[in-house]
Design brief:
Blueprint lengths: L10 E7 L8 H14 L3 E5 L21 H13 L3 E5 L7 H4 L8 E3 L2 E2 L4 H17 L4 E3 L12 H6 L4 H18 L3 E5 L1 H7 L13 H5 L6 E5 L6 H14 L3 E6 L10 H17 L4 E6 L13 H12 L5 H12 L3 H5 L20 H7 L15 H19 L4 H17 L2 H10 L3 H33 L5 H26 L7 H4 L22 H5 L8
Parallel strand pairs: 1-2, 1-10, 2-3, 6-7, 7-8, 8-9, 9-10
Antiparallel strand pairs: 4-5
Helix pairs in contact: 1-2, 1-12, 2-4, 4-6, 9-10, 10-11, 11-12, 15-16, 16-18, 17-18, 18-19
Amino acid sequence: MSSSEKPVYNSLGVLIDCSRNAVLKVETFQKLIKHLALMGYSSVQLYTEDTYEIKEYPYFGYMRGRYSGEQLKSMDLYASSFGIELIPCIQTLAHLGTALKWETFSDIVDCDDILLIDEEKTYDLIDAMFRTMSKHISSRKINIGMDEAHMVGLGKYLDKHGFRDRSTLLLKHFARLMEIARKYSYEPMMWSDMFFRLASSGEYYDTESPIREDVIEMIPDDISLVYWDYYSVESEKYDGMLKKHKQLSNNIIFAGGAWKWTGFSSNNHFSHHAGEIAHKSCLRNGVKDVFITAWGDNGAEASIYSILPTLQLWAELCYTDNAETSRLEERFTTCVGGNYSDFMSLDMTMMVPGNKLPNNHSINPAKYLLYQDVLFGLFDRHVIPNEYASHFQNCADRFKKCINRNPDWQALFLTQYSLSSLLAIKCEAGINIRQAYHNQNREIMEDYCNTFLPEMKKLAEEFMKAYQTQWMEENKIFGLDVFDLRMGGLLQRIQSAINRLNDYLKGRINELEELEQEILYFDGREKDEETSAISANLWHTIATPSVIAGI
């Protein structure tokens, strides 16, 4: 007995962010390849800004867990044995801040994370990038990045050459890149926003502005443009953008999102919602190549495995155009060996009261309520008393059951159980302490000082241990230090809160100045709206209003 399915896409891939601290172990990559092969994926891109070794540049990816050439070669061979193409995915203009911070690269920095155009040393480095990938990875496809270089030409370039038309600069740099790519027989792809901004109004998602003919003429036939959209839920937006892209080039690739970049939790529900709409538009507009991005902004805190349900969805859309839950459950059991419903529940910490399905894509209370200071309470106005604590306790109860139902994925669910247990006690602690302080309820303050805050500290340590175990199962050790620093700071701040309450209760100080401050909305709203939950994904703004980096 045999059966066959005809995919609607010529290629279906996944992009894995290995540049936001979490560099997959080779063993994790191999495990993931097996799941992707069962699903029917044909390619994988490892997004590596500086996390690959270039022999001539020892500071490139230094202490970042960079892949050696031998590791890349072994990963390429392993993926190929399962019929999956490993495609290099690099940056060749912006997003290179972790490399460019080293003094050895000072001559080729324009500003911030952007390379200096018209500097030959810049092109020596880029040539080395291509040469390294060409030597160790067999694919002749390559993603050259080129996105979000908003400040190009406004730093050292401006000092050296004066102001130049930045469109001309970008096109000049692009021409040099294409020369190097052709030298190594590559067929490049790049994020389309650079050309789209040049050709229209300067806004990426603008479907109304006319496309400039002179820019169209500058786009060669041997480059593919990647239209990326992780947010839109209007079919008209996708249709409009794809039509505009087709005016630029016939070689269009669509990149959707598997949301795992706003904290420790995935957002498969929103990824599914947006994904189905995007898929239908791709079919209507004749898109034949698709890949799904798994970014890891601000620390890559969510597990790569947490978005397996979204990867399963796109596989089923590709091969059967069927997104029914029963189909996904059946295939997920086959391809992953986990309970589909339980994996979808990994979103639960995002789904606080007021954040209704399919969820606001970027709301991430689990992250900002974890890292916010107990006494400063920067996010306390965004918590619904009683409801949030109950919600996180329900999450913990669910994840505890998931641990036993998914023996191959226990570390994943144990992390979420530990996080939810901590949030159940922490999310409203600052509100309760502040209220007790202003009501002069010493009994409640003593309970927090002597019982609840010490328990919170214990739960934070348990979460830290669970997460460290998960990280070390999946990723290289490099990058875990950031989590340790963040959690170490949180643990000390909990202890400081205990000490402050104790000093006040013992009469050693007359007031708690931090509790005398009026608490404002973090997002600047003047009054509560439909949902109190918000998006806040940068640790340094969550943890403190004080200066924590820079001068």
